[in-house]
């Protein structure tokens, strides 16, 4: 299958690239089998032997996210237990075969949540809400030690109004994809017009979509890909729950017990991220674009679901 190129400046990599890097930097691993283990929008993954995972960033910008993970993840493991988080075991540096930093982690057994892997969707939603609460309660680094932790999803909604409006306009110009764009734009506007968040900043995973969760024995087992780790307002953290089935979403909302303004801003963020991803990835990664469209469809079909002020 042809490898998808998603971004300008992307650096191709394959199993041979991994083997070359290992020969240079970890020769004791160079003889282990290397098998492609999927690719996200930021990284390519390769299983190394039975117990390791190699991640190679797609671009120089994404390499910074791996460095951030290596610095902060060791302190996150105890906070999110019993859920697993990635454990870095090697900080790869640029080599002859690949010009960027890269990482090796312990392999975590599991599969993304889906009809064949989850035994109780309500339990998964409740467990995810618990993980979010635990992460948001973790102590923050001092203000002077937060370099690189300013992710855009931790900012005020209004700061993103320009580009979100532009993406919604792109969707309209391309035919709308069968979506109710006036309704979706209204959901975005309802969040933007609220007062800015007034609570303290918290730790944020930044991208809790289903592909960054792992299920084992039917239940939530791990949270992975902390490349979007940031410190900021918590609203956007709740947005990816719209990617889960309705039973999981409802259990999440009940367990999370969010203030209504936080919920409204989370719903607006769910619109924003999907509306940005759909036109960008339509040709680059049709499968991911379909996930964005599915989220927008869920939002327009159930716009009041989870509303703490609703019936």
Automatic annotation (TrEMBL):
<feature type="domain" description="Aminoglycoside phosphotransferase">
    <location>
        <begin position="36"/>
        <end position="269"/>
    </location>
</feature>
<dbReference type="InterPro" id="IPR051678">
    <property type="entry name" value="AGP_Transferase"/>
</dbReference>
<dbReference type="GO" id="GO:0016301">
    <property type="term" value="F:kinase activity"/>
</dbReference>
<dbReference type="InterPro" id="IPR002575">
    <property type="entry name" value="Aminoglycoside_PTrfase"/>
</dbReference>
<dbReference type="Pfam" id="PF01636">
    <property type="entry name" value="APH"/>
</dbReference>
<dbReference type="InterPro" id="IPR011009">
    <property type="entry name" value="Kinase-like_dom_sf"/>
</dbReference>
<keyword id="KW-0808">Transferase</keyword>
<keyword id="KW-0418">Kinase</keyword>
<protein>
    <submittedName>
        <fullName>Aminoglycoside phosphotransferase (APT) family kinase protein</fullName>
    </submittedName>
</protein>
